[in-house]
Prior knowledge:
- It is a single chain.
- The protein has 111 residues and is mainly alpha-helical.
- The chain has helices at residues 2-26, 44-100, and strands spanning 30-34, 38-43.
- Strand 1 and strand 2 (38-43) form a beta hairpin.
- The longest helix has 57 residues, at 44-100.
- The radius of gyration is 31 Å and the shape is elongated.
- It starts with a helix and ends in an 11-residue tail after the last helix.
Amino acid sequence: MKRMAGFLVFLLLVLVVLAGFLFTLNNDTPATLWFGRNFGPYSLGLWVLGAFVSGAVLGLVAGYGLWSKLRLRLEMRRLRRELEDERRSAQQLRDRLVSADPDHSDGQPGA
């Protein structure tokens, strides 16, 4: 199943690259962009494809950082709850031990 999913991802990637290549070939109108200075003229398809690729890369980089932080935050929350439950359970056991031992009325179990 994992192999099939990998193949489908690869096939999708090939289709996206092919579509980008065809888009670039069919949109060859020269365009100049200005980002503080003039860049170009390059084909309009190349500009759009470049924007798509840079946005995808930035999205992956930003998304990976956010997802990993979110995953770690959820794991910390789960572990804190588990620790609190274990502390409560230990306290209940201590309380039972103290109440079950009639020889020690000072609250300290055992001697």
